[in-house]
Amino acid sequence: MKFRSSNHSTHDSIARAPRPHAALALALIVAALGGCNDRTAAPSAHAAFVRTEVVQPKDRQASITLTGEVQPRFRADLSFRVSGRVIARYVEVGTHVKAGEVLALLDPSEQEADVDAATAAVLAAESQLRVAKATFERQKALIASGFTTRTAYDQAQEGLRTAEAALEAAKAQLGTSKDALGYTALRAEADGVVTARNLETGQVVQAAQPVFSLAQDGERDAVFDVYESIFLGNEGERSVSLTLLSDAGVTASGEVREVSPAVDPRSSTIRVKVAIKDPPAAMTLGSPVAGSVKARAQRQIALPWRALMAAGTRPAVWTVDPATRTASLKPVTVGGYEAGEVLIKAGLEPGERVVVDGGKLLSVGQPVTYEGDRS
Q1: How far apart (Å, rounded) are the C-alpha atoms in residues 208 and 77?
Q2: What is the rounded average pLDDT of the residues 288-314?
Q3: Is the pLDDT of residue 300 over 50?
């Protein structure tokens, strides 16, 4: 008898039954996968504690202070009217001089020779005039008696007129020569202070070459070089308060007298001259002064320095949505900087809640918590 079919059935049953160690491995894999899923789950966002304030624009009366220099209202460059060699110099830079005071002398030898030549020419012209007058008088008497011709008479009359003109020319040349001799002495044209000197004894100077600068006594200006942007919104303000930098107790008031129409290409500034009213004696020429002017009041939002952040290359601040209490970074336009504060010109609306402290570690959309506002 054969049992082949029964043996095959028993073998298949054994093959289909699960092995104990295989089932255990499968259970461990499932548990491990479950553990991995638990660890990769997104954690809940952490709310950051920050200090905030609700911004409101305020009228701000800004003050602009610049440094300038006291300069004379009238300045003149002095020069000799003739050429020559300097033989004497009597003043230095800073010397106060009176009108008509001699500042320097040229060698007058050449001019004196011209005066002598002109004097001789006058004497010669006077002699020729006397001869011409005698000739004319003789011809006049002869023509009245009929002993000369009309032609001779006319020639004598013409000679007289020529001699008179020659004498006038000689006298004029003598006057010019004397003036040139007087120009060898350089004199101050007004009371003032010598502010520059460009000659030395023994130097040969040319006519009209500047050798001294004279700041005339009297009215004084405070001169400032300012950037054009300062004038934006302040066109009507012309009163300036002046303070001597070396002594804050020395003050004066002034008024804008002149604004240059052109921008200096080297410094990109505009020169402004402020007329000083009754300048104190301590405000001497060249003294540095501080000029302050009140700018027109503007409505601006002021925030602490620490509130200012950056969004790329632009300034920005963190704002808080009151509904969701989440942070967002908002670009703003800065209108100016002051001690401890930054002025926001655009980008914020009144009533917005801005983070003023604790914004360095915030991220966009992060929940925040905050307490009362800064007053």
Answers
A1: 10
A2: 84
A3: yes
pTM of the model: 0.58
Helix (H, G, I), strand (E, B) or coil at 237: coil
pLDDT tens digit sequence for 72-81: 999 999 999 9
For 115-131, the pLDDT digits (tens) are: 999 999 999 999 999 99
Q: List 59's β-bridge partners, or say none.
A: 299
Integer angstrom CA distances of residue 313 from 48, 316, 338: 25, 9, 21
Nearest to 68 by CA among 247, 257, 226: 226
Which DSSP letter does residue 159 get?
H
Q: How far apart are CA 83 and CA 111, in angstroms?
A: 10
Q: Count the alpha carbons within 13 Å of 306 in the hemisphere toward its beta carbon.
A: 11
Q: Are 271 and 37 in contact (CB under 8 A)?
A: no
N residues, the chain: 375
In our burial notation (b when 16+ CB lie closer than 10 A, e otherwise), range 100-136 reads eeebbbbebeebeebbeebbebbeebeebbeebeebb
